[in-house]
Amino acid sequence: MTALTSRVLIEGRAEGPVLKLGADISLWGGVDPRTGTIIDARHPQYGQSIAGKILAMNRSIGSSSGSSILLELLQRRCGPLGIILIEVDFIVTLGVVVAREMKFGDIPVVQVARADLSLLPGTVRINPNGKIESLV
Q1: pTM for this structure?
Q2: What's the total number of domains in the chain?
Q3: Which residues are catalytically annotated?
Q4: Which of 17, 65, 73, 101 would bridge with 28, disulfide CB 3.0–4.6 Å?
Q5: What CATH number corresponds to the domain at position 109?
C-alpha cells in the first residue's frame, strides 16, 4: 500500500494494528466499556478487543450514548488508538472531542473513501495531516 490521504476530522497521531470491522457497531451495548471487548454476539468481530487498535469502520450505529461509552473507554485506557471512518460519524467524534477536553485521550479520527478501507494493511500510522502509512 502506498500512503493514503484521509480527511482529518480530529487531528492527532496514532500507530498500531488495524481492526477492520465487518459490520457497523453500536458502542452502547456492543462494546464492553470496562475492557474494550466487542460483546455483541451478532457482530462479526465478537470477542475481539478495540483496545490498543486503530479502529477502521464504516460508522457507528445506535444511540447517541455511544459517545459516552467511547469517553469511558478512553478514560479507562481500553479504547482505540485512532479511528478511521468511511462516513462522518458525529457520535464517535463527539466522544473523542469530550475525551480530549477531559484529558482522557488524544486520538485522531479520519475519514477515507470506501475503496481505501480495504487497502489498509495490518499496522498503520496516522499522521496529524491525515496521511495513513503502512508499517508492515
Answers
A1: 0.95
A2: 1
A3: 63
A4: 65
A5: 3.50.30.10
